[in-house]
Amino acid sequence: MQLQPLVDALREVVLVQRVVHADETPVQMLAPGEKKTHRAYVWAYCTTPFSVLKAVVYDLSPSRAGEHARNFLGTWNGKLVCDDFAGYKASFELGITEIGCMAHARRKFFDLHVANKSQLAEQALHSIGGLYEIERQAKEMNDEDRRRLRQEIAVPVAAKLHEWMLAQRELVPEGSAMAKALDYSLKRWVALTRYLGDGAVPIDNNPVENTIRPWALGRSNWLFAGSLRSGKRAAAIMSLIQSARMNGHDPYAYLKDVLTRLPTQKASEIEHLLPHQWMPD
Which end of the chain is more exposed for a tag (fewer CB within 10 A), N or C? Predict the structure, then answer.
């Protein structure tokens, strides 16, 4: 595929980053030799809001098996921001550091509060909201100043929240919705609070969920991928389109120019055509 060397180069620069977001979403794919579809998955790997590099790479696989994430990440051993999907667990055993998503933890309490106006859930939301308010203050800071602010202000808030969760867990009925919400956070507390010690690490995985949205919207338009090969081709094109958008480019102008220049571009200079380095010829 003509664009594949460019997408491979984009993957390489993303995996130079020491902090990367990851998420996955289902897409329907036509089964080989059959007239029905089955569930395949698109995985998204993107840079953080704190990174100078703005890029996302998609990878389509025939299943949600964790081996697909391991194959994409290869020997990379940085910090992976993700949800609690079991498919990433084997990568953590190989040296990758798990960064939990506070938004997922918050969502457990939010859903509980919406369902029955739980006062305990409201208390949890208030404390988690305090952590997010600190992040709003730290948004424009450099990594070191952000880490320092977190250590001074957010660490005590998180410690108090953790203490409160442990106390409430002893009081709520086993198997209740509140117990499940508390267990989600308590079992992942180390991963959820690792961001406090590193200013380059975000509090949640929301940025990559935003890059997944075009696929969710697209499902209602193109319905399914015709094959694994065509699905991977779509993932490659979408990687370039979304990365171009992240860098403020018009995707059409970018692709038109790159497709014109790519056949004669030296392999050693292909990085100049990546969205974050591209300049119109």
Answer: C
Domain extent, residue 123, equals: 102-190
Asked if residues 95 and 74 have their Cβ atoms less than 8 Å apart, the reply is no
For residue 27, give the H/E element and its range. strand 19-30
Query: Do 93 and 114 lie in a common domain?
Result: no
- Cβ burial of 266 (10 Å; 0-12, 13-18, 19+) is exposed
- Quote the tokens at residue 178: 């509140």
Q: For residues 80 and 56, give the distance between their C-alpha atoms in angstroms, rounded to a whole number.
A: 14
Mean pLDDT by 10 residues, the chain (281 residues): 86 97 86 73 95 96 86 94 86 91 96 92 97 96 98 98 98 95 97 98 93 76 65 90 96 94 89 92 69
pTM of the predicted structure, to 2 decimals: 0.92
Residues 218 and 155 in one domain: no
Q: Within 10 Å of residue 102's Cβ, how many Cβ atoms?
A: 23
Can you tell me which residue has the tokens 């699905």? 231
**Cα–Cα distances in angstroms (integers) from residue 188 to residues 114, 140, 184, 185, 250, in the given order:** 23, 28, 6, 5, 40
Instruction: Name the token pair of 265.
Output: 């571009």
